[in-house]
Amino acid sequence: MVEDNLRVELTAAAVEIRQLSEQANQRFVLAESCTSGLAASLIGSQSGISEYFCGSHVSYRNDSKHRWLQVTQEDLDSVGAVSPAVALQMAQGALGQTPEAKFAVSITGHLGPEAPEGLDGVIYLGVAVRLDDDLAACCHRVEISPASRATRQQIATLTMLRVIQRTLQLIIAVEQVCNRNQHYSVIGASQVENVLSGSFNPLHVGHLEMAEFASRTLEAHLHFELSVENVDKPEMNQPECIKRVLPIYLAHDVVLTRAPTFRQKAKLLGRTCFLVGVDTIGRIAEACYYTDGSDRDAAFQEMSEQKVCFLVFGRTMDASFSTSSEDQPPFIQLQDMKLPDLLVKICKGVDENQFRQDVSSRDLR
């Protein structure tokens, strides 16, 4: 029964890849190790897929990975074939040898039996995306539960197909929103309840721990949200959007919008709980982002009526809302802020004893 269900899912995934490829109008290439070409076989069974599917490098042995995909012998010897470094190099190598492809997906893993300690059922998937004259890449780790080798190989293949689907969805979403064909696009679950908004430049442990804390305490699904427009910065182009989202989209659902203000985000997404730092809530209260004081109050009232709320995390921050640690600013929480009453009513603070993470994107850039 399990294998029957897997076969149905594998076929459905291959069909969707064919449909998404046509919608995205982009070509892709694969690099397979533990799946041994099964992903390519399923994708290749779809009529008309040759317009988009460039092929697959089935590099089962280390020597093949080194010679065919330029995976360094040093990494193969030091960290082993089942590692993030090798998965990334496999994807990058496949893309480098396939100029017509927009992106590459790779997979390497131990499906058993007799896997090394700590690696039984572990697979790594690499994604490399061509961005004009640049290339962006990410890696994703998955652990497959104990099962027969054949079943595990099917599960690994399905996981790879899901990554291909997700990557095509990302490319489509970025194009639609950046080209103003849509005000927003969702990658993942369609229902948006809790949102972590940010520029993610870069994504860091603070973002990930905020997301984990909120998912646990709110007991609800979470989306990361990136707006291509920003009230204080230039509009992002498609390559920059993909760079920002790539480290997020495989482990988390994403909303890409053209909503630079939370008033606009609320209108697009409706009843939502936004996760923000005190630096962001301070900027939301700034009069300079509104026509006047009455317009600001109207915005807060609109969000209240839409059942929008803010879960506010403390940050080390100076008076200008800068979170850089260079001058060792104090740790500020929601209760330390002087905010308009209408805004305070839709905010809930996270106590320092519950959560504190002082890392800042500004310091990492």
Description:
- This protein has 365 residues and is of the alpha/beta class.
- It is 40% helix and 21% strand.
- It is built from 13 helices and 14 strands.
- It has helices spanning 2-24, 38-44, 62-69, 73-78, 84-96, 149-178, 205-218, 238-245, 262-269, 278-284, 293-305, 341-344, 361-364; strands at 28-32, 53-58, 103-109, 122-131, 134-143, 184-187, 194-197, 222-227, 253-257, 273-277, 309-313, 315-316, 331-332, 347-350.
- The strands form three sheets. It has a seven-stranded mixed β-sheet with strand order 6-9-8-7-10-11-14. A five-stranded mixed β-sheet has the order 2-1-3-4-5, with helices on both faces.
- Helix 1 runs parallel beside helix 6 (149-178).
- The termini are far apart.
How are the SSEs ordered, and which strands pair?
Elements: H1 2-24, E1 28-32, H2 38-44, E2 53-58, H3 62-69, H4 73-78, H5 84-96, E3 103-109, E4 122-131, E5 134-143, H6 149-178, E6 184-187, E7 194-197, H7 205-218, E8 222-227, H8 238-245, E9 253-257, H9 262-269, E10 273-277, H10 278-284, H11 293-305, E11 309-313, E12 315-316, E13 331-332, H12 341-344, E14 347-350, H13 361-364
Helix pairs in contact: 1-6, 6-8
Unreliable residue stretches: none
**Structure class:** alpha/beta
Overall shape: elongated
Total helices: the number is 13
Distance between the termini: 50 Å
SSE succession: HEHEHHHEEEHEEHEHEHEHHEEEHEH
Largest sheet: 7 strands, mixed
Rg estimate, integer Å:
23 Å
Helical percentage: 25-40%
Q: What percentage of amino acids are in beta strands?
A: 15-25%
What is the spatial order of strands in the main beta sheet?
A: 6-9-8-7-10-11-14
